[in-house]
Amino acid sequence: MPLLEASSVTVRFAGHDEQGRACKWAAVDGVSLSIEAGERVGIIGESGSGKTTFAKALLGLEPMSSGHVRYREAEVASLKGPALERFRRGAQMIFQDPMGSLNPRLTVGHALAEVLSVHKLVPRERRADRIRDLLIQVGLEPDYARRYPHEFSGGQRQRIGIARALALGPELLVADEPVSALDVSVQAQILNLLRDLSEERHMALILVAHDLAVVNYVCQRVFILYKGRVVEEGPTREVFGNPRHPYTRLLKSAVPDPDDTMTPDPPAGESIPGGGESGVAGCPFAARCPEARGRCYEERPPLVKAGEGRQAACWE
After folding, report:
1. pTM for the structure as a whole
2. Residue partners of 266: CB distance under 8 A and separation at least 6
3. Between the chain's N and C termini, which has fewer beta carbons within 10 Å?
4. Beta bridge partners of 24
């Protein structure tokens, strides 16, 4: 039984079409995903692909237009009272900008104590010990509890955000671009921390990123999003080692080799073409795809089996 299962999740926002008429556009368009306890899954896409909106919808932080999200077979959108509190404890999120998610008026200790107090997890007399343990678990000194968020580096603040999420003992952690704003040397430390915590606690991890190397390093499975839809998914090593969708191949060729076992494909120097997208009837990637042909502009390809444990949405 999956820990969390999303089925045909769609999130629409109000906007205007090319003629200026009011309409709704799908930031997330029929995305499905499941994750088992202790599994690490990556969600990759460029800016505007809908990956962050989808991640928030999984936790009920973004209202869905249609679809279902089930946590331990319970419908997340229907949870109320104690059941909703249990879900909030079991599924936590850390954000790209840790400074924006930390109260600048609270010391780190007070911020962690607030979480423990609200959820009534630890008696007042034991909170200091619990806060000390949390800081040590994420590689910070216990006396940092007396400091304020502005006194820390970006990497340290991200560790604080992770400690706050861990305070509730979650079964699922959703990390939204947790290292994109950090120096490369610090990125590796945070990624190692997330992977180690997932393994030690048997905690499921959904990692949202635009960097293939980040997901390749941490995750066992990957979902590639384009314009709100999954275009390819499967085991990470296999998807990156032998991409089945042109978008995945172009993503791979547009960045330095994220793994020694991967070779540039297509030819070096080729990057993702910019500008435009195909009509609604066809494949959303057709206008940017170097392999598009007639059918691609006329019919939208479904997500179908493309090997053992893999799927891709392409007519090739």
Report:
1. 0.89
2. 249, 250, 253, 290
3. N
4. 14
